[in-house]
Amino acid sequence: MHGLLYGGDWNPEQWPESVWAEDVRLMREAGVTMITLGVFSWARLQPGPDDWDFGWLDRLLDLLHAHGVAVDLATGTASPPAWLVRGHPEILPVTADGVRLEFGSRQHYCPSSPVYRAAAGRLARKIAERYAAHPALALWHIHNEYGDHVTECFCAESATDFRRWLRTRYGTIDALNHAWGTAFWAQRYGTFDEIEPPRTAPGPVNPTQNLDWRRFSSDALRECYRAEKAVLDELAPAVPVTTNFMSMFKPLDYWAWADEEDLVSDDAYPDPADPRAHVNAALDYDLMRSLKRGRPWLLMEQAPSAVSWRPVNVPKRPGLQRLWSLQALARGADGLMYFQWRASVAGAEKYHSALLPHRGTAGRGWRETVRFGAELARLGEVAGSRSRADVGILLDWDSWWALELDDHPSTRMRWRELLAGWYAALWERNIPVDFVRPGSPVDGYRVLVVPNLYLLRAEHAAWLGKFVAEGGHLVCGGFSAVVDENDHVHEGGAPGPLRELLGVAVDEWWPVPDGQSVPVRLGEERVVEATVWSEWLEPLTDGTEVLGTYDAGALRGLPAVTRKGSAWYVSCHLGEEVSSVLDPVLEEAGVRPVLPGVPDGVETTVRRGPDGAYLFLLNHGENSVDVPVPGWAGAELLTGEPVDGERPLRLPELGAAVIRGPR
Amino acid sequence: MHGLLYGGDWNPEQWPESVWAEDVRLMREAGVTMITLGVFSWARLQPGPDDWDFGWLDRLLDLLHAHGVAVDLATGTASPPAWLVRGHPEILPVTADGVRLEFGSRQHYCPSSPVYRAAAGRLARKIAERYAAHPALALWHIHNEYGDHVTECFCAESATDFRRWLRTRYGTIDALNHAWGTAFWAQRYGTFDEIEPPRTAPGPVNPTQNLDWRRFSSDALRECYRAEKAVLDELAPAVPVTTNFMSMFKPLDYWAWADEEDLVSDDAYPDPADPRAHVNAALDYDLMRSLKRGRPWLLMEQAPSAVSWRPVNVPKRPGLQRLWSLQALARGADGLMYFQWRASVAGAEKYHSALLPHRGTAGRGWRETVRFGAELARLGEVAGSRSRADVGILLDWDSWWALELDDHPSTRMRWRELLAGWYAALWERNIPVDFVRPGSPVDGYRVLVVPNLYLLRAEHAAWLGKFVAEGGHLVCGGFSAVVDENDHVHEGGAPGPLRELLGVAVDEWWPVPDGQSVPVRLGEERVVEATVWSEWLEPLTDGTEVLGTYDAGALRGLPAVTRKGSAWYVSCHLGEEVSSVLDPVLEEAGVRPVLPGVPDGVETTVRRGPDGAYLFLLNHGENSVDVPVPGWAGAELLTGEPVDGERPLRLPELGAAVIRGPR
Amino acid sequence: MHGLLYGGDWNPEQWPESVWAEDVRLMREAGVTMITLGVFSWARLQPGPDDWDFGWLDRLLDLLHAHGVAVDLATGTASPPAWLVRGHPEILPVTADGVRLEFGSRQHYCPSSPVYRAAAGRLARKIAERYAAHPALALWHIHNEYGDHVTECFCAESATDFRRWLRTRYGTIDALNHAWGTAFWAQRYGTFDEIEPPRTAPGPVNPTQNLDWRRFSSDALRECYRAEKAVLDELAPAVPVTTNFMSMFKPLDYWAWADEEDLVSDDAYPDPADPRAHVNAALDYDLMRSLKRGRPWLLMEQAPSAVSWRPVNVPKRPGLQRLWSLQALARGADGLMYFQWRASVAGAEKYHSALLPHRGTAGRGWRETVRFGAELARLGEVAGSRSRADVGILLDWDSWWALELDDHPSTRMRWRELLAGWYAALWERNIPVDFVRPGSPVDGYRVLVVPNLYLLRAEHAAWLGKFVAEGGHLVCGGFSAVVDENDHVHEGGAPGPLRELLGVAVDEWWPVPDGQSVPVRLGEERVVEATVWSEWLEPLTDGTEVLGTYDAGALRGLPAVTRKGSAWYVSCHLGEEVSSVLDPVLEEAGVRPVLPGVPDGVETTVRRGPDGAYLFLLNHGENSVDVPVPGWAGAELLTGEPVDGERPLRLPELGAAVIRGPR
After folding, report:
1. How far is A536 from chain C (nearest CA, A)?
2. Which residues of B touch A108 (CB under 8 A)?
3. pTM (2 decimals)?
4. Which chain C residues have a beta carbon less than 8 Å from that of A487?
5. What is the pLDDT of residue C525?
6. CA dihedral angle for residue C172, residue C174, residue C179, residue C185, rounded to 10 degrees
7. Nearest C-alpha in A relative to B511
8. Among partner residues B98, B186, B190, which is closest to A79 by beta-carbon distance?
């Protein structure tokens, strides 16, 4: 694979072979370089337990190869065939209420089912054996969107697997009883055999049981992935392997998953009806790039226009799909793939837009497909280039899961919503950020932002302390460092092992009711409003400086924002107004935006490769703007026009530019 | 049966026989002419498997006959007795989640249950054998409100029946696989035995499976009906048969059902708290009249005042029940029946109003019962008369079901809401309309209105083309002609087989988000707002005239409303503002209102019989109004006063008049 | 027990024994006098079927006794251990949909389970045998919050028990068929064996079946309580027994429950985020005092600050917990206990505030714990004193259950919301009220308020008549006296057996739709708005005086409020505006507030004991106020300062005073 990938999922089983030749001809016309095949082909490839039909797929790979299109070949294990389900009904997943979900959709399997796992492994092996050496094969695509519909199963097989997982984790039932705090509410277990999944219960279920269930459920799906990966690695060691992620997805700990991928790929569906969709998309793309520490990733699925699964599915207006695709490139993608190549005429996704729409080559959609394919070809040199950031944002799935357990001071404290304000503040300033895994190397970052870290392990506390000790700037949001890995409150209360570092103690959580807010005074002039969350906070040391105070209500006069040395604590939820706290930190840490003087709404990133640096300018606003690009003398790659770095560049509404500069 | 029927359901099992004599005396006082008996009498008639008790019912029929009251005798099969359910628990219906619904309410049976069907048939036979020749018997009333609570059952018996139905429809599993598009998402079936009902699944279920399930479920209940009908026809061939419909009811294809009825009857419960209830009621009554192409129908159930099953049950204010009853007559009913005669003092419907309320003869309710009975007697000659319409509205249950499947461009596209605007526009102008079954004769109509026809079969496309070719005016709403009978998108996209006729192609669906709207410019002066739906529309021919364009947003300047010859296409949802499009069509087609110059809020219809024409004037407004009635010299039947056709008629608030004129 | 109790639940199983000594030391520091032990100790006390471990509990009781802390010892039966559930999975409760609820929370048992009942009885016996004579033992605490999570179970065991209960109630199946009105909808039962619990059914379930199910479910839990009570009474006859109630709790008929308690205790959790929480709390406390006709009760659980089970859990601001605790005293409590002593660090309630918070003795919480303990010690003499009221409010669980059955004129008629307006009107005026059980002695009351009595038995009608006949003033709200104990509408309609007494007949219910209101004219000047409910009301006698009329809509000019002699009828819902009706009644009846001239927001009550009277003044307002206390010369007990009865007393925001006066 070289240059930027362009293509999408193709489900040719839906049409007679006679249509395939036209498809491939049109792919060439559009500049398609890679096609994903076989995502939902299990029933076609294996019509019965010992019945295999590969001829049609042979012909497809040959055909694509003959036309110079590489193949991302799926193992097709996300949708087991009817005969397998009817022969082994225990494969079907079960809800927390005990409902066994029926065949007729997709992902109808229990992740812990030995029968499913064996059948999936057998299919993967057959495919790998047959195509490992095919010249069209460029990438393995395991399964599809793990956890899209079924992230957990409560059946008896899952219960057995959960107990196995718990035995491995805890060793003894006493260790589990301690970790789960079963002394409370008389939940003590005598043996592992007494444990079941956290099915619907009379009242709130043990929180640590729920937390372990989240961990187990992510792991159970990962076991499925690993089993297939092992087969592919064995039979085709040279071919990279991916599975398509679903952006920042709570059920799966993608840090752990990405460790076992050769290439990170993502399915991203920002909503054209959401005026802030591009900010959330930037966040997700930053995560994808961060998952393997900056290595280019692949946008495996996006929609050319509308999707079909929202209540109201608004299409992308002309120019929007181009802009949003370039955004993925700007944030580290090396390819842009779509769901799907040719629009289905039947089934659940027939109203999902496609590169080749129902109208065929007559409509707007096809014109944009062809036009963008040509543009992309001009950006080939960007492939492989990387970007860097001075700011890291901590992301820990374990803490996310724990944060959103039941019976907390406020159910409104949701990771994605807490994160959004911090991220948007940085995005608005065009400050590049990476997501950072707890415990990973952070010596390259000047500032580490921790919007929330409800669950904090002792070793991560030490790691944060080391970061600060070595000159880093830490900014930590409220309701952090509350519990340990067992969801036990740290001794002496929050922020537990960070009390020393931050120089504060939380006396009590003061969640803010819906529709209300609390003013926070930051210096003489500036008052911002906190929603959702506030804290009764006490400084612990003389070195603790109070930067902001609550300005009304029961907490009036108490500290809201503090710093001790280069460790900041923001006890309340400020949304995007957190910029009032962040800006001076960035200033002090010497963090600068990508480019100064960029108009509002213009997203700016830089990727650097061996042949130069690439400045991306993306105008998300509703007007045309002039963007000064001082120092960026070179060429604008989309147009091929030279850029002198002195005159500003004009970007129309939804306009974009990619400038190759010397540095 | 002659004259207009007046009466209601009577459940005398609830009281000692000693009360019956008073009931019958009061029926005479009120002018009651027909009583429905036995709707919920199964447990009383058959206390055990081989235990029958008909004596009490014998006495009731004799008593009613002796007092000149005819009987609408029910087969009583809607509520199987406890002993049957406990002896055969598999009779109980099962939800999509697998919950087997319990005895204790009504309609607790699986429509596909052989045990239920056999028991229902046996009961119907016993009743028919006993009463076929009873002189009181005027009408058979099969079952009660098929599908009111249970429109579908997901049990194993239903699964077997569904597979049988599918085998009949498709013949081979390959045909089914093609129709359902099972190549997508690997849903291919090897045999019919692998198919189950569309129970709750991990994600969206195959849409064609869901569509066939709708068809099957309507048919399964119809099978129940047909089995009883066959028994009654065999034993009492001269007695007409009905089952009470529930207005325009999605789960049952009443076109097919009405084919097998001798008389259409309806249960109608417009909500007094809804200021537009009468417009919706008019719509439902027009359907009932249309179901057998204009033959008089029977309002089998309405509430004298409040119902008891809404969250808040507002009564009918004085005069409202009279006005609304006359409305049913105005739209073709030949009788007005009520639920129920004497108010229950126990059970789930004790707060449902009755002709004889809890207060007995002391209260307002009884006074209105008696007064209206007397009025109705004066309108007897109206019975049997008919009305005609120049405008037909297409209604196709198959398309309705398909329209509202999941994973569409917008979940907000619901048939009843789309229809409402078109219907109201015509109602406001007092334009008579019929509902039209696809494929039926339409030579009598000048204009055919198609608010939506998402699913369009090839033969219906040809039928529409013929209508236009023969001089008809066709007005077709958006998101029409999208799929074929298998829910496959028509080749080349919408409006598929109507592209030629309408002269347009839809490039992309542009649903409008909730709370937003898009302006549509119709000529120089007129701008209306489209909500819910818009389309990227392209004219295909020079003959396509653009009558309206989108005036903002991504579609600005694109066509919104077009015509080609006498075929109009309205690509957006205009609600009642669609009148701006319809008015010129009606003008051009020569369609006139019933009466010119009628004040707003006055509903006007005409029925014609051998003895003259009957003009109905119904004042739904809140003020008294003067209605000019040019040409209507004759008599006002409610008062008996002469009308000279020159002076306007004064109608008080909620007032009504029925003028017999010569023509 | 003497003086006022102070303490809380302690779950020491959660910590190593080494911590216990510190706990007990801190209890002394805080002035704790009683501790509840063993509420969730079953799994610890009985680790296996024949395995008992009491040593740790022995040590705890000894330790507490040594430190002068009394013990409220729980039987611990609310949370059966895992081994019991796994050995007898049929213990687990089942929902109306058939979902068997899983272990992992608490209250995971079917109240009708013989296995559960036997195991609970065995545990209670073991505990009683061991500790009956322990000198620390002051109170038995059976179970915990009966019905908190599981108020009903739909399993087969429950069905058997329900049938047994029905046989006892009705004797014959004919009697049941009559009571349930099974003649309607063909629900007739041939034998009791055909009856099942009211599980989810196709449509509305028989209302009397649902009503009996409510009665049975309250009784089934009460059977559990009685079985344990019998064991404790047998083995420790001198030790009083309680179970902790949950304020005015619909599922359990606390009148019947309190009959079987030696001491009423309550768990009360008013929401600090609700500005009217203290009014609702006053209502609940009045009920607790009334349950045993004025005997002091025990606030068994309250939160020192925030709870953890609301969506957003706002803490109590400084001073609020003191004020609200004194409120319980003011309304008859003889002790203030908390959940819980030491904050849990794990489990579902770790964010529930505690007397000893996570921060330990460092924080605000502990300071308030200690400060209030010292204050409480100064109020010891209040213990045992009582209060009296001239006004009674009728409360009947049977009627409450029936009122809120389905298929009523309006689902918005909820007892707690109807009651709220009447209660608040009296609270605002500082009029003391008791709750009154139907049929109980009422000779001490001048006014009896009946916000709603939908279900009225004949004997209670007679009892109300007698009250009025003997000079009492009765004020009865709408939708009362509608049905008898079988939920059958009284003959002739409402208000059935009260028609004579009230002098009115209801012709029809006119519920008011959401968001609408109806003006009611009360005399020349005063118009108030009725929401939710109105009635078409007719005076029956000349003696019926119309005090208010509807002033718009269909009911314009009809009576809304009437009186006949000293029996008032208020046919509409006026919320707190009902004071316009109540005030003249109180005036006429000679009912006076506790103290005249008290500023708004200051709650005032009096308790009287052998040593004097105690005037409580509680300032719920947001400002400091001066309260005149004419005649209350004595001492303010919290400060020890003398009060001369002439100068007003100043109360700061959230301030309180307790004046001991001579009378």
Report:
1. 10
2. 201-202
3. 0.97
4. 346
5. 87
6. 140
7. A314
8. B186
Per-residue pLDDT for A1 more than 70? no
Q: Is B352 left (phi over 0), alpha (psi -120 to 50) or beta?
A: beta
Q: Are C363 and A507 in contact (CB under 8 A)?
A: yes
Determine whether B145 is an active site residue. Answer: yes
Helices B277-291 and B320-330, packing angle to 10 deg: 30
Cβ-Cβ contacts under 8 Å, C48 against chain A: 190
Nearest by CB to residue A82, choosing from B190, B407, B411, is B190
Q: Which residue of B has its CA nearest to A109?
A: B202
pLDDT digits (tens, 9 = 90+) for C103-148: 999 999 999 999 999 999 999 999 999 999 999 999 999 999 999 9
Per-residue confidence band for C663, with pLDDT thresholds at 50, 70 and 90: low
DSSP calls for A587-615: HHHT---SSTTPPTTEEEEEEEETTEEEE
Please tell me the distance in Å from C382's CA to the nearest CA on chain A. Answer: 31
Beta strands in B575-622 (DSSP E): 602-609, 612-619
Contact A477, A452 (CB under 8 A): yes
Contacts 24+ apart (CB under 8 A), A542-548: A543/A503, A544/A502, A544/A503, A544/A504, A547/A522, A547/A523, A547/A581, A548/A520, A548/A521, A548/A522, A548/A523, A548/A581
Tell me if residue A29 is catalytic.
no
Per residue in A598-654, pLDDT tens?
Answer: 999 999 999 999 989 999 999 999 999 999 999 999 999 999 999 999 999 999 999
Closest to B421 measured CA to CA, from B574, B582, B281: B574
Contacts of B155 in chain C (CB under 8 A): none
| Residue A428 Cα distances to A276, A387, A607, B166, angstroms | 11, 18, 19, 57
Neighbours of chain C (3+ CB pairs under 8 A): A, B
pLDDT at B2 (0 to 100): 65
Contacts of C184 in chain B (CB under 8 A): 11, 13-14, 40, 344, 346-349
Q: How far apart are CA A451 and CA A582, in angstroms?
A: 11
* Catalytic residue of the set B261, B301, B368, B603: B301
Query: A183 with C11: CB under 8 angstroms?
Result: yes
Q: How close, in Å, is residue B446 to chain C by CA atoms? A: 43
Contacts of B151 (CB under 8 A, 6+ apart): B217, B221, B251, B252
* Matching residue, tokens 């026989």: B17
Report the residue of chain C nearest A97, measured CA to CA.
Answer: C99
H/E element, B129? helix B114-131
- Chains meeting B at 3+ CB pairs closer than 8 A? A, C
Distance between C170 CA and the closest CA of chain B, angstroms = 17
Give me the residue label for tokens 């002469």: B642
CA distances from C627 to B250, C644, C650 (A): 67, 13, 6
Instruction: Tell me B411's DSSP state.
Output: T
B185 and A105: CB-CB below 8 Å? Answer: yes
For the record, the structure tokens of C306 come out as: 């925030």
Q: How far apart are CA A201 and CA A97, in angstroms?
A: 9
Compute the distance between CA of residue C180 and CA of residue C172 in angstroms, rounded to an integer: 13
SS3 B455: strand
Residue A652's SS3 state is: coil
CB–CB of A104 and B194 under 8 A? Answer: no
| Confidence (pLDDT) at C95 | 98
Distance from CA of A420 to the nearest CA of B (A): 23
Which of C152, C301, C368, C636 does the annotation list as catalytic?
C301
Whole-angstrom distance, CA of residue C477 vs CA of residue C578: 10
Euclidean distance between CA atoms C46 and C81, whole angstroms: 8
Contact residues, chain C, for A202 at CB < 8 Å: 93, 101, 105-108, 149-150
C-alpha–C-alpha distance, residues B56 and C549, integer Å: 47
